[in-house]
Design a protein that fits this description.
Order of helices and strands: EHEEEHEHEEHEEEHEEHEHHHH
Largest sheet: 7 strands, parallel
CATH superfamily of the largest domain: NAD(P)-binding Rossmann-like Domain
Number of domains: 2
Structural class: alpha/beta
Shape: globular
CATH architecture of the largest domain: 3-Layer(aba) Sandwich
Strand content: 15-25%
Number of strands: 13
Length: about 300
């Protein structure tokens, strides 16, 4: 039996990854979290705070460590110091490590730095990456764009689904031509499997769908999945985008050609959104909802 440790394991990405590995017959899955949320069936809990692991891992040996909810250099150091031996290590970082001033699409060999849109989130991820590579040079680092799919706890596609299910018109920022790049969590798991089976020489990968889509297309795809007719209302810059729309005012693209050499295909957006919608209908209470609709009704459609 291969032993896999996943940091987190109860929310969206880490939960999906834990579920993915728990379904494998030859894998024993351990999750490290505070036990504040229900655990995935079939995993073994190591209960502790990620900032104070101490000796909680001293009696364990893992074939693979997947750090999902590690956001800072300090958290990364705490995790690495707690591990007795490190074999395979995969860190889910972020595309927020690329300064928005760089030419696009962003490539893995570009210099990372401050991104004014993402702020400390991006620079903290850089610190975690640097700490990891200084101590575990064989580790793999994945830099995704917007992740989506089943178990999504952020109110992103769920918000658009709500508008569609309520037959509401949808408020689109500006002209709707800003690009969004996505990656389904199932494809993330597929790529992790590929890394663990092939151990490529490249250790930092941008991951994501090869094609980005603009806001108009994304919203239309969400309405199509619900089976609703889309009426668009374009909203000027008078309103702050994040007040009525679940994505930053940030048009960016990742070069995922290195990933595609190992995994040429990804789930089409329409299929991924269908998967997300089927889960959302039965799990609305698991999503951190925001008051976009209230803002729209009070300030835009009034």
């Amino acid at each position: 039996m291969k032993k896999v440790l996943i940091t987190g394991g109860t929310i969206f990405v880490s939960k999906y990854i834990a579920t993915h590995f728990a379904a494998k017959n030859n894998t024993e899955v351990y999750v490290l979290n505070r036990n504040n949320h229900p655990q995935v069936e079939g995993v073994k809990l190591i209960q502790c705070d990620k900032n104070n692991i101490g000796n909680a891992l001293k009696n364990y040996s893992f074939d693979t460590v997947i750090a999902v909810n590690t956001y800072t250099g300090s958290e990364m150091k705490t995790l690495i110091d707690a591990l007795d031996k490190i074999n395979d290590f995969i860190f889910i970082s972020s595309s927020a490590v690329y300064p928005e001033s760089l030419p696009q699409p962003f490539c893995e060999d570009m210099e990372v730095g401050v991104n004014s849109v993402w702020g400390n989130y991006g620079t903290n991820k850089i610190d975690a990456e640097n700490l990891l590579l200084s101590q575990v040079p064989q580790a793999y680092i994945l830099r995704p764009p917007y992740l989506y799919g089943s178990m999504q706890n952020l109110y992103r596609e769920g918000f658009v689904f709500d508008c569609a299910m309520q037959n509401r018109p949808f408020c689109i920022p500006k002209d709707g031509k800003m690009n969004l790049q996505f990656f389904h969590v199932k494809d993330l798991c597929r790529f992790i499997d590929i890394l663990l089976s092939t151990h490529p020489n490249q250790h930092i990968f941008n991951v994501g769908n090869k094609e980005s889509v603009d806001i108009n297309t994304f919203v239309q795809e969400c309405y199509n999945v619900v089976g609703a007719k889309l009426e668009k209302i374009y909203v000027s810059e008078v309103h702050t985008q994040r007040s009525f729309f679940p994505f930053h005012d940030y048009d960016y693209r990742l070069d995922v050609s290195k990933m595609c050499e190992l995994m040429p295909t990804t789930m089409p957006l329409s299929d991924g959104l269908r998967d997300s919608f089927l889960w959302y209908k039965d799990n609305m209470q698991s999503v951190n909802r925001k008051n976009y609709i209230e803002y729209i009704d009070k300030n835009i459609l009034c």
